[in-house]
Task: structure prediction
Amino acid sequence: MKDTYGTSYYYRGNVTNNYVKFADKYWRIIRINGDGTVRVIYDGTSAHENGKSSSDRQIGTTAFNSSYNDNAYVGYMYGATGSSTYAATHANTNNSTIKTAVDNWYKTNIADKGYGSYISNAVGFCGDRSLPASVWGTNNNGDGVNNTPRTSIFGAYARYVKNVAQFTCPEPSRDLYTTADSSIGNKALTYPVGLITYDELVFAGMDQRHINKLSWAYSTQHYWTMSPSYSDAASSHASDWTLNNAGYLRPWTWVTDNYGARPVINLKSDTLITEGIGTANDPFVVETN
Result:
């Protein structure tokens, strides 16, 4: 599948050979990015088989944001609440609650321990806040600013309605979260770490309409993506996509709910593997001498 950088190759379904050991932690390969870097998601301090229950498969639980009653709060970063314009509402000014948690974990476990040199600073993470005009065949979408009179439907939910998914980021200058070292994106990140997206979970075999407990992406834990879903006109609640513990994608998760955080990083394309075949018992081991 095409992504921002070229052609991406992804792991789908009941995969058992995408385990990586890096920085004294275990990770699962999500996909190979178009530039050859390897996108991995945190999976604990020990290897866990698909479908095995363990709170160790996430770094902890957290709200996505501390408040819910503004369109701004769907963002991994967000702008001015109570604003009258889309640009001000969705500016990358403030860190979300979950971004702060993920950044702090990265600093302590990756950067401060000398593992940062193995992580790509060029590749970003898409928190798609695009606002399709047409969702159900008519121009009925909200404006992404006001909670009334219409619910604001963001990009990932619109793709769910249309049964499509993609790796490209619709508005990279705003929603592709990158560091200052990247040549593209919003360059708003302090550390090169993010979360998995709705689209990446769809390609991994997850769905909103069906239960799947066999995919490598299912962990028995309810955990966050960084994909906005909608901001509801009736309840004034901002919601983001999660993968829930029942085995399906959930679009109506209020951002103030407490669920799992699983950091995602991109290993550089020239990272050396010293051993392993990628299984739980014999994972790929990254050379970090």
In short: The longest helix spans residues 97-111.
